Prior knowledge:
The protein has 530 residues and is of the alpha/beta class. The protein has two domains: 2-240, YjeF N-terminal domain (Rossmann fold); 265-527, 3-Layer(aba) Sandwich (UDP-N-acetylmuramoyl-L-alanine:D-glutamate ligase).
Amino acid sequence: MTELLTAAQMRAIEQAAIASGTVTGLALMERAGAGVVKAILAEWPELAEGRQASTGALPRTPGYFRTENAGRRALVLCGPGNNGGDGFVVARLLRARGWEVRVHLYGDAAKLPPNARANHDRWRGMGDVSRWAAASILGQAETMAPDVIVDAVFGTGLTRPLPPEVAAVMTALPAGRRVAVDAPSGLCMDSGRVLGAAAVCATLTVTFHAPKLGHVLAEGPFRCGVLRLVDIGLGPQDRADRNAHAIVRLEEGTGQLFKDPHAHKFDHGHALILSGGPGRGGAARLSARAALRVGAGLVTLGCPPDAMAENAARLDAIMLRQVGGEGLAQVLADRRINALCLGPGFGLGALQARHVAEALDSGRALVLDADALTLLARDAGLFAMLHADCVLTPHAGEFTRLFPDITARLAKPALGGPAFSKVDAARAAAARAGCVVLFKGPDTVIAAPSGACRINAAVYDRAVPWLATAGSGDVLAGMITGLLARDFGAFEAACTGAWLHVEAARSFGPGLIAEDLPEELPKVFRGLRL
Ligand SMILES: NC(=O)C1=CN([C@@H]2O[C@H](COP(=O)(O)OP(=O)(O)OC[C@H]3O[C@@H](n4cnc5c(N)ncnc54)[C@H](OP(=O)(O)O)[C@@H]3O)[C@@H](O)[C@H]2O)[C@@H](O)CC1
Ligand SMILES: Nc1ncnc2c1ncn2[C@@H]1O[C@H](COP(=O)(O)OP(=O)(O)O)[C@@H](O)[C@H]1O
Ligand SMILES: [K+]
């Protein structure tokens, strides 16, 4: 699991480490700057060579790289806080490698915080610092043709939109290697949202100690480019010291997926998936297949009488039961049915609303997706029946239908940090619904009423654009239902289901369609050594 921090949590960790006497702020800044330089050279190994030398035109003599115009060139843009301090370290270390380095400061050197000021002064022993002037910076970015532009203007301390003179530069930087120190300036690191309208689009972002929420949420991944993490020696943290609602990215399968060799199929639960009418059963069949593949002992599809023939022709290992106007009571008389899924291809009529009410009333663990979410949004009485063993799996449109006021907060322009985030939205929704809410997207957020929260980030090297395909959400609903049948708690089922869903997509790769996802689970499970 990778813990994702808020800016405030990061500051608290830094301050605790400094207060404990194990490290100084200056040492942390030095490690941060050195980490940025190391990450630049790792990302672009060709930069370790001088320009002409890399063409083979000039001999590699000692000191050769120290001649100004023979070396690489960097434009370093520093801001008024400690992010700027990191920038001065980067400038110094690149200069020490023989680079030609130009530095511009937004703000007043006399007002820099102490460590940033110390590094400013050290840099001043090696080179100049130009005052911030958009036209001259952009002109220099053209004429100097830097190998790297370093954005050390704002990091986790950004609290409001970029000042116009900074925005003018940051949105007009030439294409090339744009390296953001900790964060692309303009991005709120608690929400991944751009404060105001302008932010840097980096090609490489180098952050310290732990990723921040803003690196994975919303626009963060698109603004950061490649994300690299540098250990600055802060060590593991005592999570109890911080926000009790730890936010993590689920990266491992859980031991609970393992099947006891002595167990019977009924030990793995029995999932019931309800389907819509004739010609509308594909979605529920996808869910049912996923529930079975994820390891539920038995899966039954319940469908209206007129859809029985169609489903019977399409199902083998999945059992079939008629569920019509007589309601769910007869099917649910079988107490071994311990998890339900309603919504995929379900329909929006009065009968379906009644089935949702019966399912909720049964107290069984329950996934409500797609049409069932629309029914919930239409009927406050149904919504009030939600309980702790329910999982709602809305995409953005369904989330808006269910929680229009929360979406409105999310849609409001972000003008101050920390901006209202998808994590805040999912937490607020879960608290109101009294159940687990899984808010879909490349940055899927899973929240419980307790405030517990996970982000299943399908971004950076875990990106799975092929998941944006019809029916993939139905498969996710089925996977979570299967895990509920296997006795996972609602929150764990949602987290593990979301994680497996992305892993199955990654394993299959390009060309993926929804049908492929359940069929890929065995490979994912083998990879987990189940
Ligand atoms: N934590 C750690 O362990 C480590 C942290 N490190 C580094 O420190 C960085 C965080 O430093 P930081 O807290 O000084 O914040 P930073 O981003 O430099 O900005 C603050 C300054 O900007 C100003 N300001 C803000 N918004 C503004 C706006 N829109 N327009 C104008 N001004 C604005 C704000 O002014 P104020 O709001 O106070 O008026 C203040 O002056 C972090 O990202 C990382 O790079 C590393 O050295 C290693 C260890
Ligand atoms: N670009 C993307 N990257 C990662 N995951 C995605 C992307 N687009 C969609 N998904 C995931 O695919 C699923 C789509 O669900 P949904 O919108 O309900 O589709 P459908 O209704 O067609 O089944 C969700 O789990 C969502 O998180
Ligand atoms: K920055």
